[in-house]
Structure formats: structure tokens, C-alpha cells
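re: ur question from the group chat, yeah i did fold both. here u go
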Amino acid sequence: MRPFALLIQNGIVSGYVEDVEVIALQGAKVSISGNSYSDTTETDNKGYYEFKNLSPGDYTITYEEDGYKTQTKDVSLGEGELKDLGTVILEEEGDETFGKIYGYVVDVKGNPVMAVKLKLKGLRTEVKATETSDKDGFFEFAGLGRDTYVIIAKKKHYKRAKKTVKLKKDEHEEIKIKMRKTSKLINGLIR
């Protein structure tokens, strides 16, 4: 009976490690230290890790994987506590936001269109931004990370235009968005 009672007093810390695209990181190094104890393990094919037989106290968990930024998490464990830390998302190293998408909004004849409202959305990162084209039709979205972005251009009396841009790390992409005027029926005539 005594070994069973000992097991009940010891805690377990577990969780998952994934990348920003919600893909399990297999073989990521997970370390635990604190309370006069340290151990290291690797995640399985589902990104899962577990540390057993932990005494009550404060610990630091470190998550490491080649090509990814190292992360740490502090955890306090009570007696016999089973602590699920959920999912930790590791970001790729150098995945800073130095990219930009810029360019011009023009009409079908190539003339600049000013005061066009442009909305940008990142499909993976869900970054959202809004810009308005200037008198030369110029616009710029800066501080963007690696992602696929959808840009929607709107202006009264013009048909909505949409452009998709795939941006790599630190890339600058110049684009041109063509907008077509909507035809209006005025006094029976198309203008």
C-alpha cells in the first residue's frame, strides 16, 4: 500500500507542442527544472509530452526545437496535481514582421484612383489592416510576416477588386490593383 500512497502525492505535468500552422512538432525538446529536480523529454508524433512523479513546487518548462524560438513557461504544482498545460505554439526563428505589400490602384486605362479603401487580412495569422490610396493611387501595408494575404479594394462607383498575395519572410511585394467603374443607367442611357 505504501508505494501507491507515494504515487498519489506526486504530480504530472503534460501538454502539446505545435507550430503556428497548428501542426504537431514531433521530437521537440521539452525540459523541466525546479524544486531540486530537472528532466528532459521529447514530444511524440502528436506533439505530446509528459513529466511524472513530480513533487509539489514551482517549475520552469522550456520548449526547444531547431529553427524555432525557445519558449519557457512557469508552473506551480500542488500535491498529487495533474496539470495539463494545453498547447504551446512555437514560432519560427526570424519570423519577424519586416515584410510589406505596396503598390497602386488604377482604373482600366491605368490612371491612378485615389481614396480607395483597402482592407488586408492574413489567412494564417489573421492580421487585419486598412489603408486608403493617395492622390497617386499609392498604398502600403508594412510590418507584415510570412503569410498569404487577401486585399479587398472598395470605392463608390467602382466594382470591388480583390487581390491575393503570398508573402515570404521579410519580402516586399509590389502589386497593381485595377478597378472598373460600375455602369449607371441614367435617363435610359448607360454612362
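okk and heres the other one u asked abt
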Amino acid sequence: MHWRVRALRYIDDKDLLKNGLPRVSYGPWSQTFTSVIVGGPLALPGSTTTLTDWNAQPYFLTSGDEGKTFDATGHAVKSTEVAGSSVSTGASGGTGSGSGSGTGGSSTSGGATSGATDANVDLWDSGWPNGRYYWTVVPVIAASSGKPTAGATGTSIEYDDAVVPQDQCEAGIGMSFGKVSQPVVTAGSSTPWVSGLAPSGRVIASASKVPAVHDSPLVAWEPAVGATTYEVQVSRKSYPWKTTWSTTTAATSVVLPLGTTQIGTWSYRIRGINPALPAGAQAMSWSKPVRFGITGDSFVVVKKTK
């Protein structure tokens, strides 16, 4: 798959240049990137004939149907990469355990189970290093079911886990890892990415650790890995946090709706939203709260002299 990116901005159609031409609403294209995507479970040979062909030549697994797969107790297994499959939500901020079978590609995970309409292929924050996930590889036996495969020669194949994943983990045949979601980066070395109308009357970018603008500050941040949208919250204080305004955006910048009458010090924070996580656990880590000031209008008393 080849893909490229360009920035878009929303403008008023009435916002025309003096020559009558509209403003350009998009930026230049980035370079072209190439990716190989497997968007789901791996398609496995479904009959003895295709299995023979698969063993006889170099064979690359592609995304598709796994066929009939069963765990070691005989229960059917549905991969969590399949849209509409059930996923484990676990306890909030807690740990879970997972295992994936080898050829069969079946997988199980600890925690409570809930339904999902989309395939969830990412894991939420486990609270590393205190919390973690456990995984193991389960050997699979490809066995003939003795039934002909519709539309093909040979008999159909089913894939059976040779052992129970929990037994593998209890035997020490497995490893663990942690997941820490990436917080949104809202500043450079020390200066937040805030710009707006400065008290001096100039539109400038922030040059202070606690920037101050006249009103309607524009705040920006770096994209977070895994996030497709971002939640922005504003509070009068960084602690205790009490949200006074919030929004969700797919962009990496937003104008905070603070006018000239809302003078004082404020704080904002941002977190990414990852749709590949299970429902209820798609929010990522918050950024550190950023303090800024709204100056509003200022007046100077001038003594009139004769």
C-alpha cells in the first residue's frame, strides 16, 4: 500500500483574496510511503490439497479466514482480529494475560469479556512496571476432519491447540511485556506551543514557559502514536483539575474559546484516542497540564496637558 499526507485547513468560502481567487486550503503532499498491511487473521490452508501445495512451495500467508480452529478443550476459537469478535476488557488499569497459538493463530486473554463491532488489535496501558501482559506460543495440530471441502478436492482441515495456554504459562514457557501509551507532547525543550495576540498587539508564538495572550490562544501538539483523534480539556487550575471546556478534534491544533473577559491563568491538557483499543479503554495518557494566561484588554491613563 502506498500512502501520503498533506495538511488541510478549514476556511470561509467568502474569505477571498483581492484578485478574487480563493485561498489555498491545503498544503503540499509529503513524500510517498509504502507499507505492507495484514489487516486481520492469517488465511490458513482449508483442505489437504491446499496444505500439500502450501508445503511444496514458498507460501506467504495473507489476511483471510483461519478456517476451523479449536482450543485444547475442543471449543471453537475466534481470533480477536476478526471484526465483531469478543475482546477482553479486564479491570481498569489492571493486568491481563494473553496467549497466541502458532499456526492456528488462536488467542485468548484474561479478564472480563465484552462484545465489539470492530476488530481491536491493540492493547491498553497495563501500568508498567507494576502491571504487565503475559504471552506464550501454543503448538497446533492440523488434522483432517474427514469431510470433503466444498468446491475443492481433498478433505477439510481443522486446527487444534495441542496444549492449554495456561499450562504453558504455569510451566514457565512464556514471557511478559508492558504497554505504556504515549502522552501527547505539547511543548519543545521548555516552551509550550501556544500562539496568539500578545499584550503588545503582535501575533506571536510563545517565548515563555507560561505564555500570555490577549485572547483565543492557538495551542498545538505533536501526533501521538496510535491516536487518530485528540481530546482537549481546559481548567482554571492544574490541580485539582476541574474541566470547564473540552472538545475532540482530529487535528493537532485547536483554538481555545477564551475571550477578553476571561482574564487570568488557565491550564489545558490533551490526550490521544486510539480506536484500535476496546471500547471504554480507547483514551491514552494525558499530557502534562500547560499553564497560560489571558490578559484581555488593557488601558493606559494619559494626563492631558494644555
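fwiw on the second one: The first strand starts at residue 2 and ends at 3. Helices lie at 48-56, 165-170. idk if thats what u expected
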